[in-house]
Amino acid sequence: MINLPPSTKFKKNKAIIEKRIGRQNFLLDPISGNIHTLNETANFIWRLAVKNYNLDEISKEIVENYEVGLNQAQKDAKGFLEKYIRDGLLDIVKPSGKKIPPREKS
């Protein structure tokens, strides 16, 4: 599990290629060759994360746009963001604006 305080901000890995085909959104990692398909909710979270929203702001946007409570929104957002940090699609941004590699909790 990655430590993600509510104020955590994110940045897209520069190598990642985004592509929309019809109603589907895809993220391609050219280094690993992996393709990630984003459903509507995952795409919503992705768009906010790469627009410099922090975890708390993303959770609140989920509550405002979907029929879920804040606790569920926080859990969903954190799960999505942790996965894409581990997969190398997103980086954590330090308050200074510099990217740092994710640290796994033991």
Rounded to an integer, what's the Rg over CA atoms? 13 Å
Class by SSE composition: alpha+beta
Strand order of the largest sheet: 1-5-6
Task: Kindly report how far apart the N and C termini lie.
Answer: 8 Å
Count the beta strands.
6
Number of domains: 1
Rounded mean pLDDT score: 88
Briefly note the CATH topology name.
Outer Surface Protein A, domain 3
- Summarize the helix and strand pattern as letters: EEEEHHHEE
Question: Which architecture would the CATH scheme give at its second level?
Answer: Alpha-Beta Complex
The poorly predicted ranges are none
Q: What are the SSEs and their pairings?
A:
Layout: E1 9-12, E2 17-21, E3 24-28, E4 35-38, H1 40-50, H2 55-65, H3 70-86, E5 90-93, E6 99-100
Helix pairs in contact: 2-3
Structure, described:
With 106 residues, the chain is α+β, with helices and mostly antiparallel strands. It has a single domain, classed as Outer Surface Protein A, domain 3, CATH 3.90.930. It is built from three helices and six strands; from the N terminus they run E-E-E-E-H-H-H-E-E. It has helices at residues 40-50, 55-65, 70-86; strands at 9-12, 17-21, 24-28, 35-38, 90-93, 99-100. The protein has a three-stranded antiparallel beta sheet with strand order 1-5-6, with helices on one face. Helix 2 packs across helix 3 (70-86). The longest helix has 17 residues, at 70-86. It starts with 8 loop residues before the first strand and ends in a 6-residue tail after the last strand.
